Amino acid sequence: MTSPHRDRAGRPLVAVTGLGIVTSLGEGKEDNWAALTAGHSGVKRLSRFPVAGLKTTIAATVDFIKAEPFCAPALSQEMAMRAGVEAVGQAGIGAPGDFPGPLFIAVPPVEMEWPHRRALAEAGANGEDVTYATLLAGARTGKFREWYELFLFGTVAENVARRFGTKGSPISLSTACSSGATSIQLGVEAIRRGEAQAALCMGTDGSVHPESLIRFSLLSALSTQNDPPEGASKPFSKNRDGFVMGEGAAAVVLEDYDHALARGARILGFVLGCGEKGDNFHRTRSSPDGAPAIAAIEGAIHDAGLSPDDIDYVNAHGTSTPENDKMEALGLASVLGERMKSVPISSNKSMVGHTLTAAGAVEAVASLMTIATGRIPPTINYNVPDPAIELDVVPNVARDANVRYVLSNSFGFGGQNTCLVFSGEPG
């Protein structure tokens, strides 16, 4: 009998056996990887709804899936289903509809949108009783039943769990722009604690609609460089002016390494380390000294049993906002030291936009594909380097490299910082 495989802290090793992805670049790993490494952009002028009067009129939308203009939950659910089908199918785990572990899924904040609010107001104006008590009482049987289910925070998770037959109560989470990475962290922790032998971890977000554009614009977070659309997202460039909203979903099947080996699964990689640090500095801004981000980066590397010198590539959060990119560079400089100038770094968001709650999961898939292929996707639109950011940004064209360990950063509004370390080998 062979000894169980354990990491340096004595915990079960966490292997990756399935990957799935949907972004504005296409559906599936093959199409997405070809586009990412070719430096293609999924950012385009918005056609889903009128944009007259909006400062930002572009986004990286998933237009090949039919979506209601004001129905983020429905699109988020459909993308999650498609990414899950690809990931679970590749893993070949369990019988169809009988996944042998829990679901951890990052979903966008859900609230009733403009057309539905207007309909409620009109109902009230017509003399209908639309108080909270009556709406609640009739939610499951009355005329508003569809809306009740559509805008219930846990609905996407429940439907995805039912589709794949995951075990236990599905966990919905929303930790801003680090949500997708947090879903993977929760899966890793469940396997390490021995609570599960497998976990389905996802991030999904279909939130491009007028209200979200207006809200982010009011925060001065979005790029207004609308022409040409594909040139707007320019992480780490001196002329960056904000992020571009994107839509997408990604799924990762995690397993206890011994469980995966016992069933003859193909191992795609390993999640060696997770680091998380909260920051209560501000509701949207990051701490100016970068301390929480630094702690998350250091925590992930330490959790992996590695040193900063082991990191071969950084899949950056890289949103293209002036403040975030500066803060991320500060954090990497603090942890990597002079190596910050020679460790390649790139941002997938330059091509797929900022997929918000899905971003950490989308970038996890890209990180593992980088390890598998030895090819680093570029940061496109990197034509005017910021002299204050001394990073080895992979500019405009993919780079071939021997990549063993990848650090993937996810930093969210409100101080949600989650970093992951991936490898192709168990240690």
Short structural summary:
The chain is of the alpha/beta class and 427 residues long.
Describe the structure.
- This protein is an alpha/beta fold and 427 residues long.
- It has 2 domains: 14-111 and 152-423, Thiolase/Chalcone synthase (Peroxisomal Thiolase, Chain A, domain 1, 3-Layer(aba) Sandwich), CATH 3.40.47.10; 114-150, no CATH class.
- 33% of the residues lie in helices and 18% in strands.
- It has 13 helices and 16 strands.
- It has helices at 29-38, 72-91, 114-125, 132-137, 145-150, 155-164, 179-192, 210-218, 257-262, 291-303, 322-336, 349-352, 359-373, and strands spanning 14-23, 26-27, 44-45, 58-59, 103-106, 171-173, 198-205, 248-256, 269-278, 313-315, 344-346, 375-376, 392-393, 399-400, 405-412, 416-423.
- The strands form 3 sheets. Strands 1, 2, 5, 6, 7, 8, 9, 10, 11, 13, 15 and 16 form a 12-stranded mixed beta sheet that branches.
- Helix 11 (322-336) links the parallel strand 10 (313-315) and strand 11.
- The longest helix has 20 residues, at 72-91.
